Amino acid sequence: MDEKIPKELALQLYETMQRIRSFEMAVVELFARGKIPGFLHTYVGEEAVAAGVCAALRPDDKIISTHRGHGHLIAKGGRLDLMMAELFGKRTGYCKGKGGSMHIAEPDLGMLGANAIVGAGIAIINGAALTAQYLGTDQVAVAFFGDGASNTGVFHEALNMASVWNLPSIFVCENNGYAESTPKHQHQKIKDVAVRAVAYDMPSIIVDGNDVGAVYRAAQEAVARARVGGGPTLIEAKTYRLRGHYEGDPQMYRTREEIESWEKKCPLERWRKVLLAADVPAEGIEEIDRRIEQELKEAVAFAEESPLPDPAEARSDIFTPLPAEM
Ligand SMILES: Cc1ncc(C[n+]2csc(CCOP(=O)(O)OP(=O)(O)O)c2C)c(N)n1
Ligand SMILES: [Mg+2]
Predict the structure, then answer these.
(1) Measured from the CB, is residue 81 less than 6 Å from ligand 1?
(2) How many CB atoms lie within 10 A of CB 208?
(3) Which domains are delineated in the chain?
């Protein structure tokens, strides 16, 4: 076990990853059964990134997510029942069933939203970071995004602005080697996305995104710097998505062997081995697994039983009312 990670935190990291994996595997099945409308992009295989980064954050820190966002909300403390209801399009969900998988948000947890527009969140997070800087709080703001998103203009604009204004922004690139069906070597010539930080005189960290302990330490370093006015960091977490780009993706662009080679690097399996080697009792781990299984059963029942939104409310909640003093 990593000496810098106490056992309690190590178990918490495992629990977060397991909550994400179990939620995702449940929604995969429910989607196949026609219970979940729309598109579904799962985070299976990438759990260590959200779990490791969010463990280094405080509840009042902000994050922004992507089209592959369930893991980010869970790692920031999202409740499985309210998330499940949202994915079902039910009124009891986090966004009253009007957001769904790709637009789920919970500002009270500092989760500013999933986003179907690739790259969009990278700039939005600078707004949260600027707010913290302006108000003189020591909050930090994290944008999660993919390797594909690192080719958008908004990525470069956002990193430049964060650097020039010395914002407490942390940019976390989840490099899973693909943008939809396009392998990374066909969409960018650089080997490491992290090298792009040099153009903005920004520190960067490359980390094994399937090693939750390593991700946690990288995030801790970036967070510590941002909190004391040290400015932004680009973290590149190298990982892999074990399921298709979306559920139903025929995946003609990669081989079974490639997927299997990454299944062997499963972040949960790896961390379970680390825990056992550090004499964490197997029963403790199994107890976490059982608790999550039960929580998920209840979440599915809650979503199933919940009502659909009232059509009369279709046009409410579109604009936020201005605060009275404005
Ligand atoms: C602005 C924009 N362009 C294109 C798309 C279509 N699209 C959806 S996901 C995706 C690939 C994103 O790849 P990456 O950023 O690596 O994220 P990953 O899916 O691998 O997590 C694309 C091109 C989109 N949603 N938004
Ligand atoms: Mg990608």
Answers:
(1) no
(2) 17
(3) 7-304 (3.40.50.970)
